[in-house]
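Retry 2 of 3 after timeout on previous attempt. Resubmitting structure tokens to design endpoint.
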């Protein structure tokens, strides 16, 4: 006796899932930015893998607070826009570090910063673009 297996097509992914994921991502990422900035002021430069420059720390705290506020407002489109914009800034910072463009001198990047900026920047841009495609305009 032979058995026939019928494959069902995969259920389509609800497009709004990416809009919600951007909010969740930012609820996690915003506070991480704030903590990263605060730790930059506390850790001695020799113990830190990333830059401890004061302007760099203030940048992380300010954008972390903005991102967290947007996330807890639960506006999927705004969270996705933030993720695209901040991701693009992260990618620019990696380029700025290698090419010694502003704010490289001010932010005093370390190699770990470059790796984080490329990885997080690409992930944030990707998630944000997918979220923008599915988030309703408000």
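Retry 2 succeeded. Sequence:
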């Amino acid at each position: 006796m032979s058995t026939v297996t019928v494959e069902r097509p995969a259920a389509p992914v609800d497009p709004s899932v990416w809009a919600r994921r951007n909010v969740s991502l930012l609820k996690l990422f915003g506070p991480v930015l704030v903590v990263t900035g605060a730790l930059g002021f506390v850790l001695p430069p020799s113990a830190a893998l990333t830059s401890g420059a004061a302007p760099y720390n203030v940048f992380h705290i300010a954008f972390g607070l903005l991102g967290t506020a947007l996330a807890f407002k639960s506006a999927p489109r705004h969270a996705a826009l933030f993720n695209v914009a901040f991701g693009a800034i992260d990618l620019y910072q990696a380029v700025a570090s290698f090419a010694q463009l502003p704010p490289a001198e001010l932010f005093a990047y370390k190699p770990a910063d470059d790796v984080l900026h490329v990885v997080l920047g690409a992930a944030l841009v990707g998630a944000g673009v997918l979220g923008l495609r599915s988030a309703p305009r408000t």
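Attempt log closed. Residues 16-42 form the longest helix (27 residues).
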